[in-house]
Amino acid sequence: MAGISGEADGPGRRAGLAREDRGDAAVAVTDLFRAHHLELVRLALVMVGDLATAEDVVQDAFERLHRGWHGLRQPSSSLAYVRASVLNGCRSVHRRAAVARKHAPRLAEPPSRSGPDAAADDRGELAGALRRLPRRQREVLVLRYYLDLDVAEIADTLRIAPSSVRAANTRGLAALARALGEG
Q1: Angle CA(128)–CA(101)–CA(51) in degrees, nearest 5?
Q2: What secondary structure letter does DSSP report for 155?
């Protein structure tokens, strides 16, 4: 069967189209970046109050746009997608900061038991509680808090929906708190 240009459709032709599509995505995202980067950084700066964090949020949003370009239903709505992604990234920054503030006083306290044996016992207790969690909850918690991946990265890694990641994270943390006597 012949393609539009008269070439035979085959693996080489499809690979060439895939390279071409990736190039189109790169050009489109680059143009969008050049036109709107500054305004998006300003938006994020107002939301998070820190320039470096704002730049990171915007960079992550453009990276997700580039990675998911072919999944966009309407490439003409890419600016709206990036704006929404920046706002979601800012919300994530605030959530992480709230969690850090919540746990900072406890982390600053000296351990109730002294010495390296007490820390090893705590790590062993946590590891044991993690091993008792269902597989999905354990995977999500380790990816989130050990590798510091965000919800989208975890969803991509585990090939599940972001809502499933959030649910497993919430349930896993609750189960860990119960197992460790903190909830």
Answers
A1: 120
A2: H
In contact, 85 and 61? CB cutoff 8 Å: yes
Q: Which residues of 4-40 are buried (b: 16+ CB within 10 A; e: fewer)?
A: eeeeeeeeeeeeeeeeeeeeebeebbeebbeebeeeb
Structure tokens at 117: 């044996």
Give me the helix-helix angle, 11-48 and 51-67, nearest 10°. 160
List all residues 6 or more positions away from 51 whose beta carbon is below 8 Å from its beta carbon: 41, 45
Q: Say how far apart CA 41 and CA 167 lie, in whole Å.
A: 30
- pTM as predicted: 0.49
64: tokens are 């997700």
Q: pLDDT tens for residues 43-91?
A: 999 999 999 999 999 999 999 999 888 887 787 888 888 999 999 999 9
Contact by Cβ (8 Å): 106, 66: no
Give me Rg for the CA atoms of the chain: 22
Tokens of 165: 């990641």
